[in-house]
């Protein structure tokens, strides 16, 4: 009996063991190795030696690469917002209007994952080509000036990231929407929750203006045009699509999905380098590109390791703040 | 109703999709770090006894009898050896080698980038272990680095009479291997101007790359290969890349920055510029001779010119990494491809400059008139006046190399 009890007490640890072992071997150990290498000095040919005095690698790296850090933050953030704007209505439609096509629609969301990440990004080069299938005809009829291009600009990089990470945003939101009990919405309607006017109009306009201006700033496009466009779209959406029951029932209950989705999008987007490499140019390099080139092209392991740690620390800090603001813990306790 | 913790479901999806993302990440990781299978330690005594003794080259001075091994692990760049039109896995040169020596060449097209490949073999070499490769092909400057690090086997020239007799003089006595016994050139190429004649017209000067002409502004690419881009920039400035010093790096970088600031340069690329030239995203590029020759099949209006100011010459070299399992067989293979008919067979397919004397005559005798015509191609067999205009970038000492790389990284956004 005693043995059995002890075994039962041990069960959680035994179940955790493979995961912990995996983390120790493939995360903790390499991280320590990398941390040590960030304190190296020397070259590949003369060999590296570690010394605590080399902490200056960190300040130097931050100093030299702060534009790329900032760019990663802006591109990652913009892509996350775009993903949210596309994913939420998509997930909402699948969850509440999908009917018997739900599974098929979900499958379509993840279908692109069956081909390689690189291949999908590469194919954007064909779609967005200067005289490609999208812009070629528009240029021919004179809607766009001949020198217009999206490839090798921030817009292409952000669009590429948003495209590649869209499912990571859609699926968590879908899951949290899908389990909302429809009777709650019916009950709200019984209690006179109707359209949200003029609140929706005002809130939609303000949010739309902010998002439009933010995206324009990230893409270095015309601020006013984007802000006006954002306001108009926001007003339409706010006036006609946002009801009180959505605002008070559906949206709060779906926030854990939004939280999970935005983390799953933002964290890898910050460190992404494939999109900037394939779709961008010299002026759109992100911190991931720098780390990659420091490691593989310049054999500058200390700087690459230091940059990786700075990136990790920055992401952890941002996630911690985000969790405080929109944390799942508080949401669950509020229920 | 059965209340479930609201966290349960998001967590499951999250885990599921973390799995998905880790798969993506993992495959990228695999792609980045694919290390070759460790070459099976087939003892050389297991070599095919059928190899006729008559083809054995002169015995090495140590006079230890050696015989070819059963296999040879050869890492090369894609599209860099003659390939059967119907079956991509068949290479006549390798079959001929097998017929002669009984050795199966395990040919892998795994090298896409000098630095990247270096990253895959460096840990083994540093630890003094076998890399799994018997023969690798790397560009001059990387070959020079490996030789400098002492990570390359010395060739036993007694085993390679063809190489000694047939290597073109222009390749002899390079500064990183003055005795020519650590490397053997595989193919060479020239870096010059590639452009779409319909859009740009005929161009002959490197100055076009700095010209804010509306026809090509924003549709120009430079190369990520530091020595090509800085080399051509120095030539444009009337400086000599064979004598590049640190001050020249600063001058060249400032010049490149001008073209970036003027919005002329679209991007710095590797091989991708060739695709972009075909699709029209790029109309003028710093380009490698062989690439354009191949792409002319898809777009006839593409042209490659050696600029008036001169161009760069680079060579990819066969090296035997330290500790290779089948060194002797690798030496036999190097010698084999220096046999003019075999060199002609490779050159006719890859369209780059062959380092082998007599290949031109051998190709001219080919039964297929299309192939025989290649003997007249100035890009495969450049005339002496062309070879006089191309420069090999100076072999940089380690400190200079990191200075150049660092400056170049900064200008390319890294």
Briefly, what is this?
The complex is a heterodimer of chains A (335) and B (414). Chain A has 335 residues and is mostly helical.
Q: Give the tally of β-strands of chain A.
A: 2
Largest interface: A-B, 54 and 46 residues
Shape of chain B from CA axes? globular
Order of helices and strands of chain A: HEEHHHHHHHHHHHHH
Class inferred from helices and paired strands of chain A:
mainly alpha
Largest beta sheet: strand ordering of chain A: 1-2
- The figure for the number of domains of chain B is 2
Helix content of chain B: 25-40%
Count of helical segments of chain A? 14
Helices and strands of chain B, in order, run as: HEHEHEHHEHEHHEHEHEEHHHHHEH
Oligomeric status of the shown chains?
A: heterodimer
How much strand content do the residues of chain B show? 5-15%
What profile does the largest beta sheet of chain A have? 2 strands, antiparallel
Return Rg of chain A in Å: 24 Å
Which tags fit this structure?
heterodimer, A: 335 residues, mainly alpha, two-stranded antiparallel sheet, 14 helices, 2 strands, 76% helix, B: 414 residues, alpha/beta, D-Maltodextrin-Binding Protein, domain 2, 2 domains, 10-stranded mixed sheet, 16 helices, disordered N terminus
């Amino acid at each position: 009996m005693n043995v059995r009890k002890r075994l039962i007490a041990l069960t959680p640890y035994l179940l955790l063991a493979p995961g912990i072992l995996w983390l120790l071997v493939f995360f903790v150990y390499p991280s320590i190795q990398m941390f040590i290498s960030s304190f190296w000095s020397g070259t590949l040919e003369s060999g590296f030696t570690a010394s605590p005095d080399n902490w200056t690698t960190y300040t130097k790296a931050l100093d030299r690469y702060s534009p790329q850090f900032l760019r990663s933050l802006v591109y990652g953030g913009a892509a996350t917002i775009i993903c949210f704007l596309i994913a939420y209505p998509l997930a909402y439609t699948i969850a509440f209007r999908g009917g018997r096509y739900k599974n098929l629609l979900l499958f379509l969301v993840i279908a692109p994952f069956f081909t390689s990440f690189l291949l999908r990004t590469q194919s954007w080069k064909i779609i967005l080509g200067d005289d490609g299938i999208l812009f070629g005809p528009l240029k021919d009829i004179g809607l766009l000036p001949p020198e217009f291009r999206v490839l090798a600009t921030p817009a292409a990089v952000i669009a590429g990231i948003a495209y590649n990470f869209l499912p990571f945003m859609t699926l968590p939101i879908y899951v949290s929407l899908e389990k909302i009990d429809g009777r709650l919405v019916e009950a709200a309607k019984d209690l006179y929750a109707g359209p949200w006017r003029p609140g929706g109009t005002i809130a939609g306009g303000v949010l739309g203006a902010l998002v439009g201006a933010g995206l324009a700033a990230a893409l270095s496009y015309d601020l006013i045009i984007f802000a006006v466009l954002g306001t108009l779209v926001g007003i339409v959406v706010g006036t006609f699509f946002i009801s009180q029951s959505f605002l008070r029932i559906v949206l709060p209950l779906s926030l854990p999905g939004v939280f999970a989705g935005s983390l799953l999008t933002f964290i890898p987007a910050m460190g992404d380098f494939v999109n900037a490499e394939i779709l961008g140019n010299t002026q759109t390099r992100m911190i991931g590109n720098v780390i990659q080139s420091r490691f593989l092209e310049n054999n500058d392991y200390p700087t690459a390791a230091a940059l990786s740690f700075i990136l990790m620390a920055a992401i952890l800090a941002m996630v911690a703040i985000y969790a405080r603001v929109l944390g799942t813990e508080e949401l669950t306790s509020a229920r | 109703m059965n209340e479930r913790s609201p966290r349960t479901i998001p967590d499951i999806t999250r885990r599921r999709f973390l799995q998905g993302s880790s798969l993506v990440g993992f495959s990228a990781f695999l792609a980045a770090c694919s290390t070759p299978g460790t070459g099976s330690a087939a003892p050389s005594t297991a070599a095919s006894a059928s190899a006729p003794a008559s083809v054995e080259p002169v015995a090495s001075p140590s006079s230890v009898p050696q015989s070819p091994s059963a296999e040879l692990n050869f890492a090369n760049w894609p599209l860099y050896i003659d390939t059967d039109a119907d079956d991509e896995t068949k290479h006549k040169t390798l079959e001929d080698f097998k017929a002669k020596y009984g050795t199966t060449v395990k040919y892998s097209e795994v090298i896409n980038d000098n630095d990247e490949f270096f990253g895959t073999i460096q840990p083994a070499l540093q630890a003094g272990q076998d890399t799994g490769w018997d023969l690798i092909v790397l560009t001059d400057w990387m070959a020079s680095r490996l030789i400098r690090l002492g990570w390359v086997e010395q060739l036993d020239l007694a085993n390679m009479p063809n190489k000694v007799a047939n290597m073109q003089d222009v390749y002899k006595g390079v500064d990183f291997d003055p005795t020519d016994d650590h490397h053997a050139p595989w193919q060479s190429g020239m870096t010059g101007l590639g452009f779409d004649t319909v859009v740009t017209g005929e161009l002959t000067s490197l100055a076009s790359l700095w010209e804010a002409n509306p026809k090509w502004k924003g549709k120009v690419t430079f190369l990520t290969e530091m020595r090509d881009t800085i080399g051509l920039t120095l030539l444009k400035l009337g400086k000599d890349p064979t004598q590049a010093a640190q001050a020249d790096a600063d001058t060249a970088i400032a010049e490149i920055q001008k073209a970036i600031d003027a919005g002329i340069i679209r991007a710095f690329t590797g091989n991708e510029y060739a695709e972009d030239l075909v699709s029209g995203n790029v109309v003028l590029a710093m380009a490698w001779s062989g690439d354009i020759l191949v792409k002319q099949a898809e777009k006839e209006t593409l042209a490659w010119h050696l600029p008036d100011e001169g161009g760069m010459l680079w060579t990819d070299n066969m090296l035997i990494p330290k500790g290779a399992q089948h060194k002797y067989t690798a030496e036999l293979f190097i010698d084999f491809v220096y046999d003019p008919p075999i060199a002609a067979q490779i050159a006719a397919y890859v369209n780059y400059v062959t380092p082998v004397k007599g290949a031109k005559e051998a190709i001219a005798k080919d039964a297929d008139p299309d192939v025989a015509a290649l003997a007249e191609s100035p890009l495969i067999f450049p005339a002496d006046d062309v070879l006089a205009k191309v420069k090999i970038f100076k072999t940089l000492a380690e400190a200079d190399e990191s200075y150049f790389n660092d400056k170049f990284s900064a200008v390319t956004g890294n």
